[in-house]
What we know:
By secondary structure, the chain is an alpha+beta fold.
Amino acid sequence: xxxxxxxxxxxxxxxxxxxxxxxxxxxxxxxxxxxxxxxxxxxxxxxxxxxxxxxxxxxxxxxxxxxxxxxxxxxxxxxxxxxxxxxxxxxxxxxxxxxxxxxxxxxxxxxxxxxxxxxxxxxx
Length: 124
């Protein structure tokens, strides 16, 4: 478990609900799959940036941070390259992304993507 932090954006830090699963992207790679454990964000007021946080549990994570495998490039994990156009510190629901809906075929797309991710990351 760890504190997943947001940069000065309490509204977005509160966007994920308890039990939501988040794929974390860092430097162009998918690095973690985490589950949100708490109900709302907390504020570490002593921090200058990234002062809002949520408690999350790691379900999956890459093992090599120095030389991550090409298989974990975000475009490979999401199975389409335009996912790289979405950057920033905000939590975004995949179903809100028009490119996600277009690539993963509409209403059943999220379910199909979840099944794909389960297999792609070799989750038991």
